[in-house]
Design goal:
Length: 136
């Protein structure tokens, strides 16, 4: 299933992403079970335009297409991205709260630290992992 997700995700990003983009493919281990942290996070960052797209299995489940992200910080040590999965009502199911995500890519080590939390609540989910870089 993971290989299928990765193949679909890469194909999807490749079809919409700009040619000058850097793609970070991050494998993440959630710090605890049951959290809203993806196991695979794909970040596509076009340094020229500043446009950032993110995609993971959570986004695939609830939105089915990449989401736009914003750069919260960018320096020699790290680049931090923020994005929001909007609140939505599932057909014949519960309302999924709006979730806010933040991922920091640590440049020297190629590590990633990701967190998420439902808007308006103090709960926070975290995970850590390693990224590989693919340039388009």
């Amino acid at each position: 299933m993971r290989k299928l997700f990765s193949a679909v995700a890469m194909a999807m990003i490749a079809t919409i992403g700009p040619a000058e983009a850097t793609t970070y493919i991050c494998k993440v281990k959630p710090d605890r079970k049951g959290g809203w942290i993806p196991e695979t996070l794909i970040i596509e960052h076009d340094e020229k335009s500043g446009e950032v797209l993110v995609y993971d299995e959570i986004i695939k489940t609830f939105n089915d297409k990449p989401l736009q992200a914003k750069i919260a910080a960018n320096n020699k040590k790290r680049i931090t991205y923020k994005w929001t999965l909007p609140e939505m009502k599932l057909p014949h199911g519960p309302t999924i709260l709006r979730f806010e995500f933040r991922a920091s890519y640590l440049k020297p080590s190629h590590r990633v630290v990701i967190s998420s939390h439902p808007a308006g609540f103090v709960d926070e989910f975290t995970g850590r992992g390693k990224c590989r870089i693919a340039r388009n």
